[in-house]
Write a structure and sequence with these properties.
By secondary structure, this protein is an alpha/beta fold. The chain has helices spanning 5-12, 45-48, 57-69, 80-91, 104-120, 142-146, 151-154, 172-178, 204-215, 266-269, 285-300, 303-324, 348-356, 379-398; strands spanning 24-28, 31-34, 39-42, 97-101, 129-133, 164-167, 183-188, 218-222, 246-249, 260-264, 329-335, 338-343, 359-360, 362-364, 368-371. The chain has 14 helices and 15 strands. It binds pyridoxal-5'-phosphate.
């Protein structure tokens, strides 16, 4: 059905992904087109990446303009877009300094290294263990998969990097009990994304901040999925008011262009001196110019507030949907436009049936449908998806 592209791809691409049978060729806003020119409403957004939608002319222009001027010179020199992006990110967050890299995993690697360095620089090198959360997701490099609390991601890659302990997400008492003389930091996602769109109980982040202050630990937020407006605030931690010492970003920061960032307070950043950490492509002028335009559009055009509003609407519609299909829907979860629907059966057939009807959604942890559309999604598009799910969910019972 797709001109043999899929067959050709299956012969030559590494088999690390189970792909949907779809060759996508172009996009505009929340809509994508395949190689047969069929269109789809996109509730995946490249996994919470394309928050401003596809084919955004202003981002394309910022990218093209900078690409003609200067793509890359290395961090041996200063460039204006990198400086301006760091200014913008520190102005709108708790942080004083930014380190740029190319992906989420790389941002988390930087955070893990910085947490260790922070204590070794104070001659407390014994403090190197990081408490992470069960069902967390922090990436696929050796350090970040070691920090990830999911067996299926770690299996087969042992020995893992030593120095990570795990406690249940949302349980402040378990966290307190796990802290030992070697603990240096706590690392968590304010809302767990890949782990199943899991929000912590009210007051949890404030409690974790309090524990970290009591015990002299650094608090690291992985906002790679939750940041850049996804949960209805620019950063998810703003819902709680509990600020971290280190925060990592990636996914939506470039709206699809590869960029990661580690944001950090002055006192913690101070231990990362010249030579401590580096990456060739981190913060190139061409990528930071695009990310700067992303931040400008998100903030100046009120897109975060729009996402919060339609997110509330979407959640209400999912709750109605759950009431209409109590035999297949177990739970509605999430915040802003990071939403999930837990089913009582595997979700893959729903994903396939929605795709046939022109809607892209994705399924995580076998039974959880995840909805992370571009933040520019409108209520009629949400209504259309709900109608589609109303039609598809009853089919599960007959299967
Ligand atoms: C996607 C994700 C990562 C990994 O980012 P990559 O860019 O794929 O390396 C890390 N943490 C969270 C919370 C994520 O959602």
């Amino acid at each position: 059905m797709n001109s043999g592209y899929m067959e050709r791809a299956e012969k030559v691409l590494a088999t690390t992904y189970k792909r949907q049978p779809l060759v996508l060729t172009r996009g505009k806003g929340c809509r994508l087109w395949d190689s047969q020119d069929r269109s789809y409403l996109d509730f995946v957004a490249g996994i919470a990446v394309c928050n401003l939608g596809h084919g955004h002319p202003d981002i394309a222009r910022a990218l093209a303009t900078q690409a003609e001027k200067l793509c890359h010179v290395s961090n041996l020199y200063y460039t204006v877009p990198q400086m301006e992006l760091a200014e913008r990110l520190t102005r709108v967050s708790f942080a004083d300094r930014a380190f740029f890299c190319n992906s989420g995993a790389e941002a988390n690697e930087a955070a893990i290294k910085l947490a260790r360095k922070y204590f070794s620089a104070k001659n407390q090198g014994a403090r190197h263990r990081i408490i992470s959360m069960e069902r967390s997701f922090h990436g696929r490099t050796m350090a970040t998969l070691s920090a990830t609390g999911q067996d299926k991601i770690q299996k087969g890659f042992e020995p893992l990097l030593d120095g990570f302990d795990f406690v249940p997400f949302g349980d402040a008492d378990a966290l307190r009990r796990q802290i030992g003389p070697e603990t240096c930091a706590v690392m968590l996602e304010p809302v767990q994304g890949e782990g199943g769109v899991r929000c912590p109980p009210e007051g949890y982040l404030a409690e974790v901040r309090h524990i970290c202050d009591d015990e002299g630990l650094l608090l690291i937020y992985d906002e790679i999925q939750t940041g850049i407006g996804r949960t209805g605030k620019l950063f998810a931690y703003e819902h709680s008011g509990a600020v971290p010492d280190i925060m990592t970003l990636a996914k939506a920061l470039g709206n699809g262009l590869p960029i990661g960032a580690m944001l950090v307070t002055e006192s913690v950043a101070a231990v990362f001196g010249p030579g401590s950490h580096a990456t060739t492509f981190g913060g190139t002028p061409v990528i930071t110019a695009a990310a700067l335009e992303v931040m400008r559009l998100l903030i100046d055009k009120g897109i975060v507030a729009h996402g919060a509003e339609v997110g509330n609407y979407f959640r209400g519609r999912l709750e109605d949907l759950a009431r209409r299909h109590p035999d297949v829907v177990e739970d509605v979860r999430g915040i802003g436009l990071l939403l999930g629907l837990k089913l009582s059966t595997p979700g893959d057939p729903v994903v396939a049936a929605c795709m046939e009807r022109g809607f892209l959604i994705n399924c995580i942890q076998d039974r959880i449908l995840r909805f992370v559309p571009p933040l520019v999604v409108e209520t009629p598009e949400i209504d259309a998806l709900i109608d589609c799910l109303d039609e598809v969910l009853p089919l599960l019972k007959d299967a």
